[in-house]
Amino acid sequence: MNLHVAMVARTLNVRHLRGTGRYVQEILRNVTPADEVRWTAYAHDPALPFRVPEPLLGRAELFEFRGDRFHLWEQIGLPLKLRQSGAQILHCGENTAPVWQPIPTIVTIHDTVPWSDETHGVQHVYMHDVQRLALRRCAHVITISESSRRDIVARWPFLADRLTVISHGIADDFFSDERGPLPDSLLQALGGAPYLLYLGGAQARKRFDWAVELLARSGREDLHLVGCGFGAGTAPLDRIPPELRARVHIAPFLEDGELVSLYRGAQAAIYPTLYEGFGFPAVEAQAAGTPVLFSPVSSLVDLVGPLAWTNEPQDFDGWLSSLQAILAMPAAVRAERAAAGMRWARGFSWRRSVEKHLEVYREVLARSRRR
C-alpha cells in the first residue's frame, strides 16, 4: 500500500544538527523504495540550510508563516499546507503537534524535559495547555525508551493506550573504518595529548563540571578534556579552574565522521547526565569502541553494554575509580572489550526503527479508515 507521510522537519532546518534532528534525518533516510512510502518534509526558515537526506523519497518544502513567536507556523500554517498536500499521515517528530489536525497525526515525544523545565508566559501556555489539547487529539504517540514512556504516562495518563516505544538506532558512520579529519584548531590544541571526551553541552543536568573535576583528580597531568555539544557562547569557560584551562578544549560542532574520529581517539567518553530520553552518547561511544562512563538513570539503564562503566550519579569516588581503571586497562583487554561493545551496539538499528515506525503509520491509517 502506497503511503504519503508528511514529516515536520524543522530540526533539520538548522546550521547544526542535534539529537532530535538526527532522529528525524535517520527516519527519512532509512525508508527504501520497497517500503512504498513517499515523504513531504516541512520546515520554516529559507535562510537556513535544510538538511534533508539525499536522495529523499519524496520532496522537501520550506514555507514561512507569520507569527512564529506564537507558534502559528505549527498551529495554522502547517495544517493549511496539509489540506492541500495529499498526505495521509502527519508525523510530528519533534515533541509538539498542532491542535488542528486535518489528517491523522502522530507525535514523537522524546522525553518530558520540555514540560519539566521552568517556562513563562506564552511558552508556558503553549507547552502545558495547547499541547495537552493537541495530544488528546493525536491518533498515536511514539516515544524512544521505556523510561520516557513511564514519564509520559505519569504526566498524561490518557495517552497510555496509544503509546508505542521505538528505540533509536546508531548511524552507520560509527561502524565504518573510515575516519573524518578533526578540525585543525582542535588538533593543534591537543598537540597529540591523550584526552577524555565530554558529551552533553551546557545544560545543568548534563554536568560539565563533573567531567572537569574528573580531569582534575585523574592523577594524569598529560590528560586533556574535550567538550562537545555546546551552542555558540554557552560553554561555561569561567567555571574551569585556571590551572586546568590549558587542558580543557571546547570542540566546534562536528559532522558525524569527525565525531566518530573524536570518539575513537578518546581514552574514555564521560557522560555524567542526570536524565535522558535516550542518550545517544552512551551507545555511540561503545559503537566506536571507546569506554564510556555514565550513571544508570532514566533510559540509560537500558544502555549498559560491554564498554560501559556505571556508577550512581553522586558517587564521585566511584566515577574516579572507574576512570582510573579504564586508563590502566591493558591494551589487549581494551581491544577485546571494544570488539564486544561494537558488536553489542549493532543491536541499535535505524532500519529496524523505521520498520516499526511504518507499522505505526499503517495501523493509524487503517484505524482512521474504519471510523
Automatic annotation (TrEMBL):
CDD domains for this protein: GT4_MtfB-like
Transferase found in the keyword field: yes
GO terms for biological process, alphabetical: lipopolysaccharide biosynthetic process
Limits of the Glycosyl transferase family domain: 192-307
UniProtKB keywords: Transferase
Gene Ontology terms, MF aspect: glycosyltransferase activity
Domain of life: Bacteria
One protein family per Pfam: Glyco_transf_4
Protein name: Glycosyl transferase family 1
Residue ranges annotated for the Glycosyltransferase subfamily 4-like N-terminal domain, each copy included: 19-172
Transferase as UniProt keyword: yes
InterPro entries: Glyco_trans_1, Glyco_trans_4-like_N
Classification lineage: Bacteria, Pseudomonadati, Pseudomonadota, Betaproteobacteria, Burkholderiales
